[in-house]
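Question (not urgent): is this output format expected?
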Amino acid sequence: MGDDTFSLIDSDGDGFLVQTDHGAPKGRVVRINPDHPEESHWKVVIRKDPTTLVQTSTGGEFLFAHYLKDATTRVRVYTAAGRWKMRSNCPRFGRSARGSRGA
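Got this back:
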């Protein structure tokens, strides 16, 4: 686990939601039970993907996974159990969401 990264996303009654690149160079999300933190007991919530997972956040009962592909952010929404719900492509690099013209 030397150079691997681990970022706490959230915690609940089932343990800790953690984003890591351990075993998944482009990232994944696992649930770690503090009573059994050994890797063999981890539950994969969001599996590894060819696209780079940059950040994961929570909101209500959902996980928002932010991926980077072709200089754009792609957001995928999952349930807390890791079931995919929907995706959203953010504006291309260099554009704003509202098309602001500046001042």
